Automatic annotation (TrEMBL):
Classification via SUPFAM superfamilies: NAD(P)-binding Rossmann-fold domains
Organism whose genome encodes this protein: Spirosoma profusum
Record protein name field: NAD-dependent epimerase/dehydratase family protein
Domain NAD-dependent epimerase/dehydratase intervals: 4-246
Cofactors required: NAD(+)
Amino acid sequence: MKKALVCGAGGFIGGHLVNRLKAEGYWVRGVDIKENEYDNNNADEFILGDLRDPNVANAVVTADLDEIYQLAADMGGAGFVFTGTNDAAIMHNSVLCNLNILEAAKNEGVRRVFYSSSACMYPEYNQLDPDNPKCSEDSAYPAAPDSEYGWEKLFSERLFLAYQKNHGIEARIARFHNIFGPQGTWDGGREKAPAAVCRKVALANDGESIEIWGDGLQTRSFLIVDECVEGIRRLMNSEFSEPVNLGSEEMISLNDFAKMVIDISGKNLTINNIPGPLGVRGRNSDNRLIQEKLGWAPSTPLRAGVEKTYDWISEQIQQKQLKSSLVEM
Ligand code: NAD
Ligand code: GDD
């Protein structure tokens, strides 16, 4: 039986990944600074610990592991990473987790290690035209990410590649492009646009408007978490050891995305574009390399993932409202 460690198992993608590994027959150890709030963590062993502490990394990385998945990071959507107020924490916290996990993997002789990088590492100058962003893997340099979060991801990619070069670690690095889906953060300030828009639509009544940050003409692509987990597993099983995009190529403007969610809800709502943290003007995954190296790329239509996510967020809102009405009684 293969053994894996999932760092960040208390989080969104980590929780889904644990379930996937369990379904494949793995023995799984999870570690996170917090429990998984949606109980989406079926690890055989879950350790509550802070990976900024090298002693925690040394305790969870054991020589019997076949694989490590490093997803622990201080992260969030535009309202968390693009305001500038969390920059020092993001860089400090995430880089310490990466350093400690890699050093422990080297010492224990665990070779295959996955790292979750981000499309945020791509240079801003290639993402100024919302209709024609460039995010091919070979466009990473000259580096000019628009956020410190993106710089940290780029540095950490290099850190994993350096451990690969000098210490025999087999790094598998995916650059995620805005992953969404059930069990993802949907309120509290760290939520990304897909969950935020679903929440706003679910809370609105007919005839009202929902707020969308910016002019709504900025573009993104969004990838449902099931496809993300599929891509992680395929990459881990491959011999490809350079960074590769893991995202959807179905690019959409934020206003059109909001219209899609409104349509799914069946409500009669309008859009109110307001100032807010924006990030890059346009972004889309470029899937030529993943298709070439893995013979696979994500294919689920955006709308199918959004329908599932909208239903789940609507349910979460209802449960929260029910709980608060019971407390008031
Ligand atoms: P998430 O916030 O749900 O999961 C990250 C987890 O890491 C959290 O549960 C958090 O508690 C944990 N963590 C943070 N600091 C820790 C520490 N010091 N010790 C132990 N655990 C710690 O986010 P996610 O969406 O599941 O993202 C997983 C990874 O993918 C992250 O590295 C993130 O940067 C990367 N990523 C995600 C997206 C996306 O759209 N979701 C896009 C690009 C990259
Ligand atoms: N979060 C959020 N909430 N974004 C909104 C909202 C809202 O209510 N309304 C409009 N937006 C806009 C943002 O201004 C931004 O232009 C766009 O929607 C996308 O925002 P996010 O989904 O929050 O982030 P992102 O795509 O810019 O970056 C995310 O994806 C990266 C990977 O592609 C972040 O999660 C990064 O941390 C991640 O690495």
